[in-house]
Amino acid sequence: MSKNPDGKQIKVGILGATGTVGQRFVTLLAKHPWFTIHVLGASSRSAGKPYTLAVMWKQTTPIPSVVRDMIVRECHPKHFAECAVIFSGLDADAAGDIESAFRSADLAIFSNAKNYRRDPSVPLIQQALQNPPLKKGFIVTNANCSTTGYVIPLRALEKAFGPIESCLVTTMQAISGAGYPGVPGLDIIDNVVPYIGGEEEKMEWETLKILGGIADGDDGVKTFDMHARHPLRVSASCNRVPVIDGHTMCVSVRFQQKPPPSPQQVREALVAYTPEAQSIGCPSVPVHAIFVHEEPDRPQPRLDRYYQDGAGVSVGRVRQCPVLDIKFVVLANNVSIGAATSSIINAELAVLKGVVKVE
Amino acid sequence: MSKNPDGKQIKVGILGATGTVGQRFVTLLAKHPWFTIHVLGASSRSAGKPYTLAVMWKQTTPIPSVVRDMIVRECHPKHFAECAVIFSGLDADAAGDIESAFRSADLAIFSNAKNYRRDPSVPLIQQALQNPPLKKGFIVTNANCSTTGYVIPLRALEKAFGPIESCLVTTMQAISGAGYPGVPGLDIIDNVVPYIGGEEEKMEWETLKILGGIADGDDGVKTFDMHARHPLRVSASCNRVPVIDGHTMCVSVRFQQKPPPSPQQVREALVAYTPEAQSIGCPSVPVHAIFVHEEPDRPQPRLDRYYQDGAGVSVGRVRQCPVLDIKFVVLANNVSIGAATSSIINAELAVLKGVVKVE
Amino acid sequence: MSKNPDGKQIKVGILGATGTVGQRFVTLLAKHPWFTIHVLGASSRSAGKPYTLAVMWKQTTPIPSVVRDMIVRECHPKHFAECAVIFSGLDADAAGDIESAFRSADLAIFSNAKNYRRDPSVPLIQQALQNPPLKKGFIVTNANCSTTGYVIPLRALEKAFGPIESCLVTTMQAISGAGYPGVPGLDIIDNVVPYIGGEEEKMEWETLKILGGIADGDDGVKTFDMHARHPLRVSASCNRVPVIDGHTMCVSVRFQQKPPPSPQQVREALVAYTPEAQSIGCPSVPVHAIFVHEEPDRPQPRLDRYYQDGAGVSVGRVRQCPVLDIKFVVLANNVSIGAATSSIINAELAVLKGVVKVE
Amino acid sequence: MSKNPDGKQIKVGILGATGTVGQRFVTLLAKHPWFTIHVLGASSRSAGKPYTLAVMWKQTTPIPSVVRDMIVRECHPKHFAECAVIFSGLDADAAGDIESAFRSADLAIFSNAKNYRRDPSVPLIQQALQNPPLKKGFIVTNANCSTTGYVIPLRALEKAFGPIESCLVTTMQAISGAGYPGVPGLDIIDNVVPYIGGEEEKMEWETLKILGGIADGDDGVKTFDMHARHPLRVSASCNRVPVIDGHTMCVSVRFQQKPPPSPQQVREALVAYTPEAQSIGCPSVPVHAIFVHEEPDRPQPRLDRYYQDGAGVSVGRVRQCPVLDIKFVVLANNVSIGAATSSIINAELAVLKGVVKVE
């Protein structure tokens, strides 16, 4: 089992612990090599109850015994003062105020909520974590569950071949991406809904922030450059399909580099990609950050979404695109690498880089 | 009810009458204003039996009474000599020889099989029907069920705004497109299969043939020009989704015309589009060849696929594409306009234009 | 087209017209031979708006033109005074007060809500409509959508073979039975939920009320006898399955008559059954009140639920039961004969029997 | 990890190793504490190829590395001579001859095929394994995947309360029970098929053989008594539903004992049940052979089928049955305890009881 730098257990709290993402945090953190669940936070309706009674458990494994009888607390910073790391699975309507209050209380929040993603002081997933330097009391957010999955191969391609000029992505997204109760069965069985409110806009700008890196401002202050030095155009079309877990995406890209890389070169670059979180030793990053399938009909959500516990992404069908340069299929488990696992890797990276202090 | 030019019933035959597409032909032709089902053809295993016993009926309406007791024949031209029109729902492995034999016997075949689509003497759906002149004894094929749906709006756009320069389409196709038994339930429930063998290639070249029109060859012989005068690049990504009927497609296009039309201009052009088959009076063409939805989340296969008996196509979400010019969603009922209905319209057009002689 | 006794159009109102059942009432009544939609009632949130803007339409056919611009009213009796018949698709939490107020205003309500089903003065579907005599101002309710479907063949069997002694029914119910949004997609895709709150109890006692007929009380007042003269035990197990429309039920019955009828006798009795509503000429009763399938694998919801517009029930697989006497499969379209169609037939019967006065 | 009696690895072979059940055997045996996969057998089409190329792998975990390059053999006894145990996942059309040949070659076959289930010398699952004594060279078969799941609680009830007099079971079976390709997607999405050929008969007689135990014949030969001493009537109604894995069953039972046990007594008896295979230490039997749910809406296949790796069965909703005595819901994972896992437990039991000799 991996060891954290200081070799001791790190106390963590979970905000929104009874919700869909919160349940996933609980499941993953209960078996984490470094992190120990210390506080579970939820709404005042749940506060005061043992977790087993407060939660409507919807995971396919039973409630971990370590939290079964833990008393749920309200989401107030005073209950979380001993936690070196706070994970937030709060809904957007609650996350704004609560996460802000926690940040003001000098706590380190790793959030799955969308509220602070556009905040210029808030990094979006690990690529952006190193700089600008984070003050004590900060928020690191996940990207949208569809964005996270496909920027990982895009990042690998930019690392190998330089800037991407344009990217067209069509998603076929699982219903778990909409939370619970989420999408009514009547709307999705035997159906496709070719619209997810706000999703296309999120994919289009989040990609720029994540891939853009850090720019030096005129005043010496570092900022996110939104891929401005190498303007990147992104067009997303988002669809909901009758799949429980796992977002499938058809991606076409055009590179600035001419001639563009061949499909074989792209395949090799994806296989070779090692994210910093992997090389530095984050325990939740899998062996294959990107798994490249050779079979013609993979990846498929039902067969591939739980491989490596859903912490990697799968890519297949890398081939020429007659309109742009290269096209391929990406599968990402939206509830793992697209949500809770992503936050956990962010926190592991923050620990290893000393951004979070372990006492 | 529409009247055909000569006001009399036209005898038709159906090849492959017990198969999935054949059943659809039977259902539609049993209530057709001009055509009368005269012969049902199927394999030797079925020949000699009454239709009711030969068929494993899978439609949601009962077997039409007019064919219940009709004795199924082998697919030999001698049984079909009195038929002015032959519809073929044969599988590809049978269609090659049988359709060729029927053509040699001076019969007019309107086929849903893929075998002769690339034949330079064979028109692909109605756009290409007028020329080059067809000799007595000919085949007119449908395009692939995914192609037919999305070329109708492309055709409308080219008519209004001139040549399209490139088109990127991602499909989410219903399982009925694979016939019966087709896609195993184990492969498709709670899943997406991001691959359909040969489908992307078909969409990419069929689009060129259908939209390309007729060219004058050096030797005075007219040929299909495969959109060669205005080279069009098409990139298709084809996916199978857990939907019974109705192919949903996300389409992005770039026009040659600069500046390109606005989304509103595109919407208006789609609404205004009247295909020749409609203006000339083919009874199976619906009032709205293209129905344009204003709601943000339409078209959806389960709600919109049976509108107008599936004979039109639905378009929605017309908007700017940050990479190409315009993007939108298309829904086409693959078993109606994508298959049997398309052949029937081709035949109606052939009757009205005198290509098929009604005695 | 059928004629009502007085040959004139009958004005009807619809309560809860924007809901799932209300939309179904609108769809059916817009093409009804006798009834004319005169008023649409909904909540104060919808009141004052044209129907097109008030409703989130979920039917597979477009909103009927006759109601598109009709202004929705609040559910107050004063707006419905001219209506000879009121159909109610209200939710249970609204139906109690509103239907009571309408009854007090001497209106005739045909309701799909569950609130007054147990009321001793309220008949449950048409079998019970004739007696006890209804005063001016009354409510007739539908049974639960699962009950209605299977009591029709039970009624036919009791008519042919005398009292049933016990009945064990296991249902596989469509999600549309739970209304909209109803069952979350996350709960039902690739799943069965073996529990529907209150459903088993409803099936168990409603069956007794519907089949029980009318008893003479000691004081000369007629009451529903709840099958008390021939005690009938019913055991229901209710399951939700991933089906959009159509409840499938496996039914086993034991007869009081010894020896019990054979499967063939049961089949013949079901085919021969003509409910009073059919013999008296209700236009919404189909030709086959019960359609008996001979194929071994029918009825199936996807193939058979829309036959005869969903107004009949399908029965198949009539065979010996090794534990009770006879077992068979029933399919009933829960949104048609199980809901709106049932109310409409009740109202047609009330008109034909003079219970509702047509002015 | 459990130790087998002799503490050494036991070589096993798998017949039909490339099929659906065979893949499941491979997955489970690759991590088994006692058994080592020694030979993989398949049809002559696959023989000679490395397993990776011979198989169309459909599991959600990758092919175990230990078998990836193993060369597949034909199903001939000579290749399996060193195997102490042979598992058979053969299809019924191949199993008859091959299993017979293996038995004649003095091999011990644990089969999932149906061919020899009725054979009076062949035990059906572990309950019947001890007697009559098996000669060297024998077949032990699984029961049908639906039978296995529900006889486990029936067995527990008979152990606690004496003979069951009658049992009525309605199944909602997963499509994986039909193998691959199995049920076409077109037949099962948004549908229920109320018929599975031969399944009801299998459940009805297999139950008698499994629960019946061993009888002394007049000639001193022990035979299976088919529950003849306590005649048990079973009525099964089998349905296919759109679920990938996991058979859900609604069961009603009547006991011979009067008064019958209460629901609470039944619950306690199910929880307390320890099958012999568990008490004797078979490593594949889970802690909870029967897990009893207290929540009103469980078990559900999607949430509960993989609990304990699918090796236990789940029971819920234990309650009074108004027609028989007690009713409840059973969930059993048809591909685990209903198929491969059941054979493996049979083999473990045979090892521990010395029926299979470990050299």
UniProtKB/TrEMBL annotation, chains A, B, C, D:
<dbReference type="GO" id="GO:0009086">
    <property type="term" value="P:methionine biosynthetic process"/>
</dbReference>
<dbReference type="InterPro" id="IPR000534">
    <property type="entry name" value="Semialdehyde_DH_NAD-bd"/>
</dbReference>
<feature type="active site" description="Proton acceptor">
    <location>
        <position position="247"/>
    </location>
</feature>
<dbReference type="GO" id="GO:0009088">
    <property type="term" value="P:threonine biosynthetic process"/>
</dbReference>
<protein>
    <recommendedName>
        <fullName>Aspartate-semialdehyde dehydrogenase</fullName>
        <ecNumber>1.2.1.11</ecNumber>
    </recommendedName>
</protein>
<feature type="domain" description="Semialdehyde dehydrogenase NAD-binding">
    <location>
        <begin position="11"/>
        <end position="137"/>
    </location>
</feature>
<dbReference type="Pfam" id="PF01118">
    <property type="entry name" value="Semialdhyde_dh"/>
</dbReference>
<comment type="pathway">
    <text>Amino-acid biosynthesis; L-threonine biosynthesis; L-threonine from L-aspartate: step 2/5.</text>
</comment>
<dbReference type="InterPro" id="IPR051823">
    <property type="entry name" value="ASADH-related"/>
</dbReference>
<keyword id="KW-0791">Threonine biosynthesis</keyword>
<dbReference type="InterPro" id="IPR012280">
    <property type="entry name" value="Semialdhyde_DH_dimer_dom"/>
</dbReference>
<comment type="function">
    <text>Catalyzes the NADPH-dependent formation of L-aspartate 4-semialdehyde (L-ASA) by the reductive dephosphorylation of 4-phospho-L-aspartate. Mediates the second step in the biosynthesis of amino acids that derive from aspartate (the aspartate family of amino acids), including methioinine and threonine, the latter of which is a precursor to isoleucine.</text>
</comment>
<keyword id="KW-0028">Amino-acid biosynthesis</keyword>
<dbReference type="GO" id="GO:0051287">
    <property type="term" value="F:NAD binding"/>
</dbReference>
<comment type="similarity">
    <text>Belongs to the aspartate-semialdehyde dehydrogenase family.</text>
</comment>
<feature type="active site" description="Acyl-thioester intermediate">
    <location>
        <position position="145"/>
    </location>
</feature>
<keyword id="KW-0486">Methionine biosynthesis</keyword>
<dbReference type="Pfam" id="PF02774">
    <property type="entry name" value="Semialdhyde_dhC"/>
</dbReference>
<dbReference type="GO" id="GO:0004073">
    <property type="term" value="F:aspartate-semialdehyde dehydrogenase activity"/>
</dbReference>
<dbReference type="InterPro" id="IPR000319">
    <property type="entry name" value="Asp-semialdehyde_DH_CS"/>
</dbReference>
<dbReference type="InterPro" id="IPR005676">
    <property type="entry name" value="Asp_semi-ald_DH_pep-lack"/>
</dbReference>
<keyword id="KW-0560">Oxidoreductase</keyword>
<comment type="pathway">
    <text>Amino-acid biosynthesis; L-methionine biosynthesis via de novo pathway; L-homoserine from L-aspartate: step 2/3.</text>
</comment>
<keyword id="KW-0521">NADP</keyword>
<dbReference type="GO" id="GO:0046983">
    <property type="term" value="F:protein dimerization activity"/>
</dbReference>
<dbReference type="InterPro" id="IPR036291">
    <property type="entry name" value="NAD(P)-bd_dom_sf"/>
</dbReference>
<dbReference type="GO" id="GO:0050661">
    <property type="term" value="F:NADP binding"/>
</dbReference>
